[in-house]
Design a protein that fits this description.
Strand content: under 5%
Number of helices: 2
Radius of gyration: 33 Å
Number of strands: 3
Helix content: 25-40%
Distance between the termini: 75 Å
Strand order of the largest sheet: 2-1-3
Order of helices and strands: HEEHE
Shape: flat
Oligomer: single chain
Length: 131
């Protein structure tokens, strides 16, 4: 059974995408050239130096300019280590040393004892631990 194609093919769409991407790249290069020219004009008009722009000669080559409205560099900064979270409290423990804090998925040993006792408070193997 033959089917009719009602729209453009994948190859045609890919060709359009490639053509549009080429146009976008060309437009970006043009806009960058215009912006660079405006920046150079402003630098010469106001007599700005590299130090005025935060581009001092002793600075790292890959240093980022400060973010707009802030005095910290835009590059990612390492965060200081904060206090470690408190250890999880153990709510249930059996005679074999298995423990569970009551949060998250129930462990298999707890499920088995739950089925046998019908409720954790009725299970003699489970004891809420003292804090």
């Amino acid at each position: 059974m033959a089917t009719k194609k009602s729209g453009p093919t994948l190859a045609a769409l890919n060709a359009q995408i490639a053509a549009l991407q080429a146009q976008a790249d060309a437009l970006r290069k043009k806009e960058i050239a215009e912006v660079v020219a405006k920046i150079k004009d402003a630098i010469s008009h106001y007599g700005l130096t590299a130090a005025d722009l935060g581009l001092a000669t002793g600075a790292r080559k890959n240093a980022k300019l400060p973010a707009a409205g802030g005095d910290k560099p835009a590059s990612k900064q390492r965060k200081k280590a904060g206090p470690k979270p408190a250890a999880k409290t153990v709510k249930f423990k059996d005679d074999q040393g298995n423990t569970w804090g009551g949060m998250g998925k129930r462990p298999a040993w707890f499920k088995l004892l739950w089925l046998q006792a019908r409720h954790p408070r009725n299970c003699w193997l489970l004891t809420p631990t003292e804090n």
